[in-house]
């Protein structure tokens, strides 16, 4: 036993060394590349951050309070508001007002783009909706998958016949809940 | 690992004429469980980089099941590997190691460290360290050895409506870590559609982690109508794994993800009429073919296979041993007998000697042999004679029941006490005791005989009744059987209920316990003095029987009920023409009748002793249950509409112009690995047909290669002029930011 172990171990280690990516030359990599420590994010985090960002842009849009609200340029163009008598030099008296106008313009451009081509597809809004079709409310036995005509009121499991019912009633602690989970009908405590 | 194992088939209990279920079958077809998908060391192709020029693109189909990569001039991707990375610190050599793709499955240690680059169950990259490892692996394997930059443009696929953060981070890595000169992104299913020369159509792409329905008009996807169902091959495999773990809760083998994925691919198929097929999936006819057996490696505990001669020899040896023991015993008995006879001789001699001796001499002789008086000696001799005679008879093989029970006389009992002395009185008491014993025995004997007679009489009456009124008799028997059945059921229910604390049975039990334990049984105590006189009545003690959950008493009863059932059923079998073997309780419980048995163990008997059978999984209903989820997501608890609903809604309501609808219907295009099931195409076209207007003409086609066409389409596009204009250069990235994206017909649009 003792003499054979190192040799087999060694050959396996050699194989592992052959496979190991860190031992291979990778000259194409940028030596100064330092990724951010917190770049791994879940979808939930990413979506939440994007939503927050959007909301904050919207909020700061109009009443940040650092400048007198100006009549929006588009409103003037569409004739919703009577244009004020202004001359070019005094319109954008301060820089913050100019910045505000710029961001408004960007937002409006985006809005117009979305109006012309419909809403922009995002990862969250392309998810298909629940089915309301009555034909798809069929019930199947939770244990065997066969069409189920009955539901056990105690465990809420659906079952095919009385033999399966015996199985349902003899499930041990938590067994019924696991079956419900496979169907997504389990109780989630939060 | 193959272990051949044969066993003796037990003699068949009953064989109904119609019941062929027990008849021996040919050995089942068995699939072996697969090993981890390790492919061994594969040397990197080094010459390809030299062949490529700055116009050549590195094409990467960044899929969540398999990443495919190659040069744009390749016909098929050079690399295809799962996006798995095992990256950890090797304790022995004290350095970080990383294994990518199939290499990560090299041994148990590496397998234990596997991380997937994608967020589980989605096509969104979540683990960027793993993603970097994958890109490293791709560029190394493609033979890129340029210093400081990969120096080739990169075309990478991404999911529909990819999150901007994800694309931003990918661009960041490609531009800053690998210094790619330019990068473009596209959507995999659109590449596949383009490769299959599609222009107007509806793409139904069911892939590893999601299913998309995409309408395409004039080669451009209608982004606003795209819909995604969160179900793919990954979820299917997970679902199968979940179902199997519920089906075999104590399975000894370890079920892994890649095994489940393999089973879904190998054994599942799309049913054409799910409801109907499911209804009779576990029926006997054809179950043999529908039931697939997966064998896990196992070691048989005891493989004692003995030939006929060996068995005969063992039996002979056993008999030989038995004979020898018998002989020894006989010898011992003989020796004992001889000894006893000698003793008897001696005592008889002593008796002879006592005759005519003086009282003193007699006493001395008796004392020598530790006798109290002559009577004891007599008794001794009598007993010995009896036992010697018995032993002799046994040796000779004669059984004598003729042993006349001599009724002992009790002479002293008739003599009044006054006429007796001290010893006499003692004797009398002794005799009285003996006499009552004898009388009791006699009484018991008589009772026994009476009982016997009563039973015989009962039997006779029963037989008479049967002969005279068979119908009534049978009716009685049937009701008796039904009652027994009910009792057996009740007992089982009670047993089950006792396990449940809330059941009526346990509550009653707790009530009794509480009553017994309480020290204050009402007003009685307060009046003081008197006992609660528990136990005065014999029935009081019955409480302990109800309280005890003990199995012993119930076991006895159980035996009783089962035995009674057997006799009643035997009688019914004998006299009732309508009661057949198959109706007995044993037959009803038999595995051939059991749906659960067919579900768990297929069409063969199950032997829990056989390690081979214990290590088997039976895939039957799962084979159609798992792929069905795409059509009926509610089966797996997914609260979304199935693909047919989505597609029908899109066609019927989503398309503005009728001519657009018609042109889309003419080309319904299926791609992706989760559509490879047999019957997927037929089922889809059948169900779509059912929800479309009658006059609409419809054609469903499948991608040439649903797995590789996305990569091939991407490689093809990378040689077209459209690619050049879609590329974002390094300079543009630096100037316009990481969000910058050039829109094109095969890619995503900017979302802010």
UniProtKB/TrEMBL annotation, chain A:
The protein's name is Vps72/YL1 C-terminal domain-containing protein
Which Gene Ontology terms of cellular component type are present? Ino80 complex
Q: Which PANTHER family does UniProt cross-reference here?
A: INO80 COMPLEX SUBUNIT C
Cite a single GO BP annotation.
chromatin remodeling
Task: Indicate where this protein resides in the cell.
Answer: Nucleus
- UniProt keyword terms in alphabetical order: Nucleus, Transcription, Transcription regulation
What range(s) does the Vps72/YL1 C-terminal domain occupy? Answer: 139-168
Q: Does Translocase count among this protein's keywords?
A: no
- Region (Disordered) residue ranges read 1-20
From TrEMBL, chain B:
Q: Which PANTHER family match?
A: ACTIN
- Indicate the transmembrane segments per the record: none
Q: Identify the SMART domains for this entry.
A: ACTIN (SM00268)
Highest taxon in the source lineage: Eukaryota
Q: Which InterPro entries match?
A: Actin (IPR004000), ATPase_NBD (IPR043129)
Q: Where is this region: Disordered?
A: 514-539
Residue ranges that the Swiss-Prot or TrEMBL entry lists as coiled coil? 439-467
Record's keyword terms, sorted: Coiled coil
- Identify the SUPFAM superfamilies for this entry: Actin-like ATPase domain
Can you tell me which family this protein belongs to? Belongs to the actin family.
The protein's name is Actin-like ATPase domain-containing protein
Q: What is the lineage of its organism?
A: Eukaryota, Fungi, Dikarya, Ascomycota, Pezizomycotina
Keyword Coiled coil in annotation: yes
Q: Which organism is it from?
A: Cladonia borealis
């Amino acid at each position: 036993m003792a003499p054979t172990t190192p040799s087999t171990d060694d050959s396996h280690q050699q194989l592992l060394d052959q496979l190991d990516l860190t031992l291979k030359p990778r000259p194409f990599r940028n030596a100064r590349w330092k990724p951010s420590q917190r770049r791994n994010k879940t979808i939930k985090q990413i979506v939440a951050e994007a939503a927050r960002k959007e909301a904050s842009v919207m909020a700061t849009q109009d009443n940040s309070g650092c400048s007198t609200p100006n009549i929006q340029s588009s409103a003037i163009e569409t004739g919703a508001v009577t244009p004020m008598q202004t001359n070019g030099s005094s319109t954008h008296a301060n820089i913050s007002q100019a910045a505000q106008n710029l961001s408004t313009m960007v937002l409006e451009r985006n809005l117009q783009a979305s109006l012309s081509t419909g809403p922009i597809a995002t990862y969250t809004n392309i998810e298909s909706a629940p089915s309301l079709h009555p034909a798809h409310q069929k019930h199947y036995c939770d244990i065997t998958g066969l069409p189920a005509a009955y539901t056990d009121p105690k465990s809420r499991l659906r079952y095919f016949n009385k033999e399966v019912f015996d199985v349902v009633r003899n499930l041990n602690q938590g067994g019924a809940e696991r079956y419900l989970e496979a169907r997504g009908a389990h109780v989630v405590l939060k | 690992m193959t272990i051949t194992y044969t066993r003796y088939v037990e003699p068949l209990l009953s064989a109904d004429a119609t019941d062929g279920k027990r008849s021996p079958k040919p050995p089942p077809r068995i699939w072996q469980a697969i090993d981890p998908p390790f492919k061994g060391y594969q040397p990197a192709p080094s010459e390809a980089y030299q062949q490529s020029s700055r116009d050549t693109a590195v094409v990467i189909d960044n899929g969540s099941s398999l990443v495919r990569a190659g040069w744009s001039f390749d016909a098929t991707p050079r690399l295809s590997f799962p996006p798995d990375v095992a990256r950890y610190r090797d304790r022995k050599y004290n350095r970080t190691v990383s294994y990518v793709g199939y290499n990560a499955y090299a041994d148990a240690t590496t397998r234990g460290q596997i991380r997937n680059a994608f967020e589980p169950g989605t096509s969104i990259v979540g683990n960027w360290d793993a993603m970097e490892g994958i890109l490293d692996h791709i560029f190394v394997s493609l033979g890129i050895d340029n210093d400081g930059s990969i120096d080739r443009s990169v075309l990478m696929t991404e999911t529909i409506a990819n999150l901007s953060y994800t694309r931003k981070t990918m661009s960041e890595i490609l531009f800053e870590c690998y210094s790619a000169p330019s990068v473009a992104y596209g959507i995999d299913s659109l590449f596949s559609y383009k490769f299959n020369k599609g222009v107007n159509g509806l793409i139904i792409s069911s892939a590893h982690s999601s299913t998309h329905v995409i309408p395409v008009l004039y080669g451009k996807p209608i982004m606003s109508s795209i819909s995604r169902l969160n179900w793919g091959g990954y979820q299917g495999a997970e679902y199968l794994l979940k179902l199997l773990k519920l089906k075999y809760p104590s399975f000894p083998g370890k079920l892994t993800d890649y095994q489940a994925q393999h089973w879904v691919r190998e054994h599942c198929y799309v049913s054409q009429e799910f409801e109907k097929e499911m209804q009779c999936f576990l029926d006997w006819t054809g179950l043999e073919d529908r039931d697939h057996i997966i064998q896990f490696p196992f070691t048989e505990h005891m493989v004692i296979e003995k030939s006929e001669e060996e068995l005969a020899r063992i039996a002979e040896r056993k008999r030989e041993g038995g004979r020898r023991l018998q002989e020894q015993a006989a010898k011992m008995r003989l020796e004992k007998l001889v000894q006893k006879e000698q003793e008897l001789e001696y005592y008889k001699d002593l008796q002879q000697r006592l005759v005519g001796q003086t009282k003193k001499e007699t006493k001395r002789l008796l004392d020598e042999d530790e006798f109290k008086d002559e009577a004891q000696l007599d008794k001794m001799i009598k007993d010995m004679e009896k036992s010697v005679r018995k032993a002799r008879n046994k040796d000779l093989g004669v059984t004598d029941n003729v042993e006349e029970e001599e009724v002992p006389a009790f002479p002293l009992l008739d003599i009044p006490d006054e006429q007796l002395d001290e010893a006499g009185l003692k004797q009398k008491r002794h005799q009285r005791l003996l006499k009552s014993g004898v009388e009791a025995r006699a009484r018991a004997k008589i009772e026994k005989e009476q009982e016997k007679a009563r039973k015989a009489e009962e039997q006779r009456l029963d037989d008479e009744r049967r002969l005279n009124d068979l119908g009534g008799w049978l009716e009685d028997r049937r009701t008796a059987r039904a009652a027994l059945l009910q009792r057996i059921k009740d007992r089982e229910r009670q047993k089950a209920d006792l396990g449940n604390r809330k059941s009526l049975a346990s509550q009653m039990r707790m009530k009794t316990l509480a009553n017994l334990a309480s020290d204050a049984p009402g007003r009685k105590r307060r009046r003081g003095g008197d006992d609660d006189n528990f136990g005065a009545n014999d029935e009081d003690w019955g409480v302990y029987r109800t309280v005890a959950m003990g199995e012993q008493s119930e076991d006895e009863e159980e035996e009783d009920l089962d035995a009674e059932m057997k006799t009643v059923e035997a009688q019914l079998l004998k006299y009732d023409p309508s009661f057949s073997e198959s109706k007995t309780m044993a037959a009803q419980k038999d595995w051939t009748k059991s749906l659960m048995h067919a579900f768990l163990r297929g069409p063969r008997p199950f032997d829990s002793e056989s390690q081979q059978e214990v290590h088997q999984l039976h895939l039957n209903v799962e084979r159609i249950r798992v792929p069905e989820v795409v059509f009926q997501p509610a089966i797996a608890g997914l609260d979304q509409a199935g693909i047919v609903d989505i597609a029908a809604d899109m066609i019927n309501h989503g398309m503005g112009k009728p001519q657009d609808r018609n042109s889309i219907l003419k080309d319904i295009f299926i791609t992706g690995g989760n559509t490879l099931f047999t019957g997927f195409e037929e089922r889809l076209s059948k169900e779509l047909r059912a929800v479309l207007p009658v006059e609409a003409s419809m054609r469903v086609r499948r991608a040439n290669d649903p797995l590789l066409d996305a990569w091939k389409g991407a490689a093809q596009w990378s040689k077209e002029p459209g690619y050049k204009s879609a590329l974002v250069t390094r300079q543009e990235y630096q100037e316009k930011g990481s969000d910058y994206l050039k829109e094109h017909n095969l890619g995503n649009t900017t979302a802010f």
